[in-house]
Amino acid sequence: MNNESSVCQRYIPLACWVIVLLTALFICLKIIGYGFMPSGDARRHVAKPFANKPYTQIVVLPPEYVVDHSPGWEWLLGVLHRTFGWGEDALMSFSITSLILWIFWLPLLWLRRPEAWLAAILAQMIAIPELMTRWVQARPYLVTEGVLLALLFSWSKDEPNRPPWRKLVFTSAGFALAIWMHGIWYMWVLLFTAFFLAQRWRAGFWLAACWMAGTVTAGLLTGKPGAFLYEAIFQARTMYQEHLPGWMLVGELQPSQGECATVILLALVYLWLKAQNKALRPLFLQPVFWMIAINWTLGFFADRFWADWGMPAALVWMATQFDDTLPTVAPDGSGKRLMICGLIALPLFLHATNDLGQRYTFSLNETFVRADDAKLKGWLPEKNGLFYADTMKFFFNTFYANPQADWRYVLGFEPALMLPEDLKVYRGIQRSGHTPESYEPWIKKMRSEDRLAIENPYQPPLPQLEWIRAGDVWIGRLPVKKIKK
Predict the structure, then answer these.
(1) pLDDT for 370-384, tens place per residue?
(2) Which of 261, 259, 260, 254 is nearest to 301 (CA)?
(3) Which of 110, 105, 103, 107 is nearest to 132 (CA)?
(4) What does the pLDDT look like over 57-106, one tens digit per residue?
(5) By the 8 A CB rule, do 176 and 217 touch?
(6) How far is CA 347 from CA 15, 111, 125, 334, in A?
(7) Are strands 408-409 and 386-389 parallel, antiparallel or unpaired?
(8) What's the rounded Cα separation, in Å, for the pair 451 and 439?
(9) Which has the least CB within 10 A, 59, 286, 307, 481?
């Protein structure tokens, strides 16, 4: 019996680690096995290495746009493309897999029980099923989210003395990585503000110092630090200066509805802990609590605060509580622990990988405008022409399918970066419900080499242009003049 007990003590903890690591890996493999391709920015990031030119030669952008918004991520994809010859499919699979594993695996470094992290994720997914949809978008904001998780785990515990230099170096490097990969350097103010509100003054000041060092380092990595830092502020300021109603904004910039399900979940976990007579540190002295509170509140302004900053904090808080409580429920080497781990991993895998609402297969039926389509010969912009369009989706899909095309897009990856006169037309199209008259200012500007793309099941009633249907869009051009013999 003693030998059997010794074997359990040794191998059951190892088995739990293997289960947790493989669960995350199998989730990734199952998702990419559907043939899944995220929509939106992931497509333009993957297409960028094949374009081999800056965004200013791809999209019509204001003069303030000098440095790409996610230089580190697109640099990494470019290196993989040039070094290993990876095509679009390989780069997309890498983007999906690497970023999911970044979120699933990185926090395990700070937990005694890895299944505590899976339990927190499962609980949050049950409350908010859209969590996995957010995590498979293959966008570099997930690098920022992973670094945030790491910093919350590693800095939340009190340290009476100055943090060791190793911790400060790694923290600064984490900030630099996140900002270089995803340029919203100013949002990190939320983190050390939470520490100040929790009266963790020493930790807050050290985090602020590391943030400044990381921000400077990220700027230097771009080669144009001043332009890189200014551009992030310029883009944010431009977006919010319009004072648009929420329905006209992209999803992550629209107001949150209060995340009632998550609030209830956190309350239930807290009451469960209190019912066990567990001594809990006052919430107002916990930086993680303040990260949750601040970003839940700011979520009523823009959901991005909650989705990218508040929800990760909620996951950290739950995982920390589970990590402290699970040893009292099941000892390290017990069969009960192995059973609990399996009962967490299996439903998490099934929940994360089911194709609910075709979330992983919607892209299989998509059609793209392709320059090599013989039916579209003469219907795409000519050299140095412009592509006017009424949705960002058109840019993401068409640029992904034609990264080396020699035309530019009037509407690219962010409406706020359009030229003022074009942005005015675009907002007019949105406000009017895409009425035919709202497109006329663009039609009047069009040259013979330009084209207008409108997503509509029926031919647009705009007789000023000739039209052809290409998948989900109609492409219009100025009438071709007949050459008299």
Answers:
(1) 999 999 999 999 999
(2) 254
(3) 103
(4) 999 999 888 888 889 999 999 999 999 999 999 999 999 999 999 999 99
(5) yes
(6) 18, 21, 11, 21
(7) parallel
(8) 12
(9) 481
